[in-house]
Amino acid sequence: MGQILFAFSTIIVGVFGCVAYFYFSNLLLDRALPAKGPNAGLNINRANAIRPWLFLGPAIVILSLYLVYPVINSIWLSFHDASAANFVGFDNYVWLVNDSKFQESMLNNLLWLIVVPGASTLLGLVAAQLTDSIRWGNIAKSLIFMPMAVSFIGASVIWKFIYDYRGEGNAEIGLLNSIVTSFGGSPEAWITLGFWNNFFLMVVLIWIQTGFAMVILSAALRGIPEETIEAAILDGASPLQVFLKIKVPQIWGTIAVVWTTITITVLKVFDIVLAMTNGQWGSQVLANLMFDWMFRGADSGRASTVALVIMVLVTPIMVWNIRNARKEG
Amino acid sequence: MADIAGQKARLTWAINISVIVLVLLWTIPTFGLLVSSFRDADQIASTGWWEALFPTERNEIFRAKGADAQNLVGDVYQIKGNLFEGGQGAIIAFGVSSLKPTAYYPGETGKMSRDRLLTLQANGDYVLASPKPFRSSRGVRIFATVQSPPKFTWENYQKVLFSEGVGRSFLNTFTVTIPATIIPILIAAFAAYALAWMQFPGRALLIAAVVGLLVVPLQMALIPLLKLHNDIGIGKDYLGIWLAHTGFGLPLAIYLLRNYIAGLPREIIESAKVDGATDFDIFRRIILPLSFPALASFAIFQFLWVWNDLLVATVFLGNNEEQLVMTGRLRELLGSRGGDWEILAASAFVSIFVPLIVFFSLQRFLVRGLLAGSVKGG
Lengths: 329, 378
Fold this sequence. Notes:
The complex is a heterodimer of chains A (329) and B (378).
Chain A: H1 2-32, H2 40-78, H3 91-98, H4 100-132, H5 137-145, H6 152-162, H7 175-182, H8 196-222, H9 226-234, H10 239-250, H11 252-267, H12 271-276, H13 286-295, H14 300-328
Helix pairs in contact in A: 1-2, 2-14, 3-14, 4-5, 4-8, 4-11, 5-8, 6-8, 8-11, 9-10, 13-14
Chain B: H1 2-6, H2 9-37, H3 41-46, E1 56-63, E2 71-73, E3 76-82, E4 90-95, E5 109-111, E6 117-120, E7 125-130, E8 141-148, H4 155-163, H5 166-197, H6 203-213, H7 218-232, H8 238-262, H9 266-274, H10 279-290, H11 292-308, H12 311-316, H13 326-336, H14 341-361, H15 363-372
Antiparallel strand pairs in B: 1-8, 2-3, 3-7, 4-8, 5-6, 6-7
Helix pairs in contact in B: 2-14, 4-14, 5-8, 5-11, 6-8, 8-11, 11-14, 11-15, 13-14
């Protein structure tokens, strides 16, 4: 009961504090520079110059504090030792390049980057095309889209149950092992199989991201002008040809957006690896390596260096996004 | 278009079947865990969830009562009892030694060493007879194959909610999620309006900055911010995590809302200005109500993202009983109760049913948000 009361009061204080800022700061501005009286014109001009910054103020403060400052601070930290007290030059970077876990993480991340965005986009595209052409397509879409609502950690529990391994002699209650044994194979502890376990973890993310790709690509497919499709059909194109040669080329832009969005998600993937293997058995990835050095290693220098590597990897996408946004706006 | 495709009945069939396969592949994992969360712990461990509707068979080892329970009937010492002690089940076979655990069928009498005889009925009633008195206070071992009927129960949920701390974590998650969803919306809506409709120097630069910040990885922010929070005294507290989630959610919020608000008709805003309304009035009376769809999209996004977040909560909230959120609890249970699938399954469903409700009831807005803001990942 106390907990509920505390939760409610903190919620109210947090939300109302925010409303109060905007309300009272604007009220203050209106009082200080009233749009009446002898200086009305001047006051209005002044108020108009100030008001945007009242509106933007909290956003700018929070963005700089929570996103810009950390980038700069991380660069600074990466040149310092574990306690951030002593300058160590490029030591962290040298350590990083020679660290076997980092090399493993880079290779694994590369594997993830090759497999997950491609597989999710491809499956999403196929699912979008298939569900768009049947009557119960919207229900099917909802169900394929559903994993988007499940947390990565919840998804990990769901899939760990599928990969469950009880050992020889016990009844296998994991779906995968049960299928394998019913075909005469022998059960395996899937997530401890070096190298291949990466793919079992990737399946979880593909399972989550396919729905996202499907929804966006389905909207893009519907946006294709009917005439182009009709013309192709009149010319005798088969449904497969229409799909591959008419529809897909027209939505390359959207496919690229989906691909890059999933790429960013992959670079940050952390919860799945943490929950399933915690980077053991050769399945470490950058984001989890960073987490590991932050908490278990308690080394802010090395952790920041790993974080910067992730940042560098997403930078090309960031530049690409900004360019696109400027072109549009 | 659909008609032309529909002429080919075989193709339609193929499409229907492929979609059914896809849907099954995508739902079976969740469904399996859902079924398991209602099963009895012993049954989960002995058969797969797909056999949940059938009785389960298991080999078990029981112990008869000890010497204290013996009675002298005629010249035979007897111990009577029931193996299930009030529980449910049926004996399919039994044995008296570990080498032959299925030597006898129910109703038969098994011969033990020292001329002892064991008669066991299908319902678990047993009679142990011996010409000499029983000495040991520990009863003899009885090996039995037990068939138990399918059993579905709420017990797992009761257990996790009230004794595994999941109920507490559930409330903590709410405490984190609600303000962390509302605060960024408010801040972003004002900023988005300024970026869309107000004139001031540096506007284009700010918009570009917001787009750039969309993809900054969270990992960058953790260490510097944790240090900062600790320095100003809000480390490991709700205020800290709200601010953190606000910061990480703001770029997407501003981006989505600005695009939407910039698309609102100019005439409405200008005529309000002519009528003497201030920007604050315009925002409150016109912009907010008109941008409801965009606000809802982002709210759902942020809600799902905060509810499902593990990383930010692990860093900015404590790992103790009072502050652990659902995702953190699940992770902890995965470590400490790794094989207890009844606990894990029930906890996982407690944590995902709220996002699932939000998802299914407000999917329309979520899709709209996705379409407008698909440049942000994770």
